[in-house]
Model the fold of this input.
Amino acid sequence: MADGWVGERFEVTVGPVAHGGHCVARHEGRVVFVRHALPGERVVVVVTEDRHPGYCRADAVEVLDPSPDRVERPCPYSGPGKCGGCDWQHVAPEAQRRLKGDVVTEQFARLAGMDVSLDVEELPGGPLRWRSRARFAVDRSGRPGLRPHRSRDVVVLDDCPITVQPAVDAVLGRTWDGAGAVDVAVDSVGGVTTTRLDRRGHAQSTRVVRPDAGAGRDDQRAERRAWHRDWQVEGTGFWQVHPAAADALVGAVAGFAAVSAGERVLDLYAGAGLFGGSLAPGVGPEGQVVCVEYDAGACAAAADNLSDLPQAEVWQGAVDAEGLGELLAELPGAPDVVVLDPPRAGAGREVSAVLADSGARAVVYVACDPASLARDVAVFADAGWTVAGLRAFDAFPMTAHVECVALLVPAAR
Ligand SMILES: C[S@@+](CC[C@H](N)C(=O)[O-])C[C@H]1O[C@@H](n2cnc3c(N)ncnc32)[C@H](O)[C@@H]1O
Done:
């Protein structure tokens, strides 16, 4: 079967959207995952990958019967065989949000056996020039760009219309001889950090250019503003990518957590302390907030960010079943609320099981992958918890990614 249908060209009617930026079609009894198409369209596809007996992958290269949701791609680099950075450039923004909502619904049904429906919420700023933090690949000639879908090649770019202009200006349209990739981040005051990486992904050097001199600050840090506070972040280290995402997510988390004075909150996978620091005023000086993060630079930034909040502390360590068990045992009492914002892979079944048994009155789960979220929610559901709230945000327009915030509560005890 290896490479069996690769290069074959045939017509299909496109079915529903699936997780990963494609839609499902069928041909001669096999599933075909079709990119660059929309549900209901009649398209001609060319098979791009065929490595699995059950399905193959294809690009729609000709649209015979277009969906009313189809639009001209704003990005000239996007399309079949071109840059793989975006999935939905050919889709009207409101339809992108509908597709993302359908994916969340489908993942919860398939992986958690739950029926959820939701409207994916738009963030301010429009679908372009929102990406404030990015990694660009560099080809053997030192030219920067992005990779085609499921390829190690580099599509050389002079622009990336979803990326904020100062990041484009700092990285694209020039050469980075000897580099394997370049990370770039633009902070809330226009500071631009670029980190040059070697071919193995190791940082070689970092350059920070600030509009002001940044007096009194750690030179490698960027400045972000969210939830009425200023935050320091390691230059190209983790911060929500969309400039409006931090505020939107904190708003959702705070609404679901509804903390009150004296409560104990855990902020797991805390980064620079965004959620813990935002909830700390609500628990007051008699409460406790513990931010857990394994990256030393992020922990140092979090400690500085929370230095005016005596009820908040930072624990450097891995969130895993063992570490979490130790942390829970050391606390003076059970947490009231646990906020977690793990990377794409999610917290996993073991950590979820420990949290479901932690005694918390609520868990607020922030997730950039609805599949990981639904898988972990199933663990909570098995332990008797229910989904009491679910919101989703279009924090990555033009791509298939969506950010979800779920409120999980235990069965009445
Ligand atoms: C999606 S980011 C969230 C950061 C923060 N909540 C925010 O919104 O800015 C995930 C964070 O988890 C950290 N991380 C990933 N795996 C971890 C683990 N197993 N234990 C502790 N921290 C982890 C990463 O370093 C990163 O800072």
Q: What stands out?
A: Helices lie at 93-112, 165-171, 245-257, 274-283, 296-305, 321-330, 349-356, 370-382.
